[in-house]
Write a structure and sequence with these properties.
five-stranded antiparallel beta sheet, alpha+beta
Amino acid sequence: MSNHEKLRLKELAITPTNHILEQELGDSYAAYKQFQEALPNLEIEQEWQWYTPYKAWFARGQHRWTTVRGTKKEKTLYWLHVYEGYFGVVVWFKEKNRDEILKADVSDETKQKICDSSTMGKLPTFPVMFDITDTTQHNDIYELLGWKKKLEL
């Protein structure tokens, strides 16, 4: 079964709530809840959006800031999607930043993900994907989100 077949939250009329997420994630909900609780300290806001190509709800993590001249800016830092019993977080980076993010203070496993990730699509970008069932990968994700925030602001 492919991940696309395990993708949950596929009812357009039903916006994700904590109750629905708890039902879908099961034991992984505690990891999701801890991830959500960390977002304000990371200056990240999460919002759910219907993503038509997959006909499912995805959450987008946004960093918003105001420039010195008062211009309001925002940057998407990650996409979160819910599967049967776990959730995935994907952080996209530009290919030109690969060597730089390899300097991040992350586990060897995450560094291997960065090295192994292929450039996708027309733009020279690559994803770093995490399938999350517990909190063991949270620190690596937080570290990469910090790098993503400061790259090309």
